[in-house]
């Protein structure tokens, strides 16, 4: 069983990126898994957290893609704030580069290439 929730806001500062969920906080302690996937159906990226017993997926909709792209230029890990919990999003930049570097050929892929042009350009150079 898993839970799915959406990012509700993003903030950029000199210390990095903060993504916030404004929903009832889970009772369990959240841990970052370092895993992200693309959800072509909803046009979003999903980052997986774990409570130790179940997966919790955080959905980054297209409105947050510019904020996600900014993390690629930051050395610090972005963090997720959910209630009283602050979770560093392990491997966020690596997973985002992986997913945006070779997005495919469908409508989602075109949107990814437009939002993350540096990842697409890096992929072409590697070929």
Question: Could you walk me through the main structural features you see in this protein, from its secondary elements to its overall organization?
Answer:
By secondary structure, this protein is an alpha/beta fold. The chain is built from 4 helices and 8 strands. The chain has one domain. It has helices at 65-71, 92-101, 107-115, 117-126; strands at 2-6, 9-13, 16-21, 31-39, 44-50, 55-60, 79-82, 85-88. The strands form 2 sheets. A 4-stranded mixed sheet has the order 1-6-5-4, with helices on one face. The longest helix is centred in the last third of the chain and has 10 residues, at 92-101. The relative contact order is 0.20. Mean pLDDT is 89; it is low at 123-127.
What are the defining features of this structure?
single chain; 127 residues; alpha/beta
Write the layout of secondary structure elements.
Blueprint: E1 2-6, E2 9-13, E3 16-21, E4 31-39, E5 44-50, E6 55-60, H1 65-71, E7 79-82, E8 85-88, H2 92-101, H3 107-115, H4 117-126
Helix pairs in contact: 2-4, 3-4
Q: In a few lines, what is going on in this structure?
A:
This protein has 127 residues and is an alpha/beta fold.
């Amino acid at each position: 069983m898993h839970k799915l929730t959406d990012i509700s806001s993003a903030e950029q500062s000199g210390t990095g990126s903060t993504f916030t969920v404004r929903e009832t906080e889970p009772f369990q302690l959240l841990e970052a898994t370092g895993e992200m996937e693309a959800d072509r159906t909803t046009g979003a990226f999903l980052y997986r957290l774990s409570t130790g017993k179940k997966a919790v997926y955080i959905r980054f909709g297209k409105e947050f893609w510019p904020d996600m792209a900014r993390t690629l230029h930051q050395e610090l890990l972005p963090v997720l704030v959910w209630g009283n919990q602050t979770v560093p999003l392990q491997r966020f930049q690596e997973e985002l580069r992986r997913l945006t570097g070779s997005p495919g050929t469908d409508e989602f892929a075109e949107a990814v290439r437009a939002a993350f042009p540096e990842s697409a350009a890096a992929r072409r150079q590697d070929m």
